[in-house]
């Protein structure tokens, strides 16, 4: 959904109040970059995108603010309003519930503050796979607070590298970007024993990608 469209999701009074608080925080954070009207558009569009598949409505305003912040940062980079020189990598799969979330977890863990990582899905699921959360926790990486979300144009356009994992023709393609397909099985519904080899392969690929980008990997 475009941030210029009106939202269609139902918003309760409490959620509206929480979104208003989020808008205030985003307005302060992006002061001098985006005005309140732009922030409100992105916030409500993000709410609509997430509300379609939310399983815990009470967390929606918090997740919405997080998603809107990501999108606004991406837009600032696309528009040349914020350039920090850090490479940005976007991990995409179908449901944004397993492979792309594990890849993002490893990327953020190993890259630290030296690079920016995002993730998304062509058909986002309702929650991050509990098994993916479990096997990543075994490596000391907590992805329990992540959530499936759709990719958006500004996020793809802001990425320097787009890593796709099985989303095929549904994955977005923009000229001039580096695209790389990681052929990995979809571990949805698998046991931890089955997912661990996929997890380890993802980490190896993430470390190789960081080396190619010249980003020092922390252990």
From TrEMBL:
SMART domains according to UniProt: LMWPc (SM00226)
Record bears the keyword RNA-binding: no
The keyword Glycoprotein appears for this protein: no
GO biological process: response to arsenic-containing substance
Keywords on record: Arsenical resistance
InterPro entries (UniProt xref): Phosphatase-like_N, Ptyr_pPase, Ptyr_pPase_sf
Protein's UniProt name: Protein-tyrosine-phosphatase
Origin species: Compostimonas suwonensis
Domain of life: Bacteria
Domain Phosphotyrosine protein phosphatase I, first and last residues per copy: 87-212
């Amino acid at each position: 959904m475009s941030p210029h469209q009106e939202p269609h999701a139902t918003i309760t009074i409490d959620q509206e109040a929480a979104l208003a608080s989020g808008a205030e925080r985003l307005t302060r954070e992006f002061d001098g970059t985006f005005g309140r009207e732009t922030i409100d558009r992105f916030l409500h569009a993000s709410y609509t995108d997430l509300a379609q598949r939310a399983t815990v409505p009470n967390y929606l305003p918090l997740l919405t603010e997080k998603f809107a912040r990501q999108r606004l940062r991406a837009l600032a980079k696309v528009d040349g309003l914020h350039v920090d020189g850090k490479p940005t990598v976007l991990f995409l799969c179908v449901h944004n519930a397993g492979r792309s979330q594990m890849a993002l977890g490893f990327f953020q863990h190993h890259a630290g503050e030296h690079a920016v990582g995002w993730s998304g899905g062509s058909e986002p699921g309702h929650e991050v796979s509990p098994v993916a959360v479990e096997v990543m926790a075994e490596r000391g990486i907590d992805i329990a607070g992540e959530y499936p979300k759709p990719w958006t144009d500004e996020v793809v356009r802001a990425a320097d590298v787009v890593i796709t994992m099985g989303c095929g023709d549904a994955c977005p393609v923009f000229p001039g970007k580096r695209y790389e397909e990681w052929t990995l099985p979809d571990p949805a519904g698998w046991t931890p024993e089955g997912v661990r080899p996929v997890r380890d392969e993802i980490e190896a690929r993430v470390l190789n990608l960081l080396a190619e980008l010249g980003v020092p990997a922390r252990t």
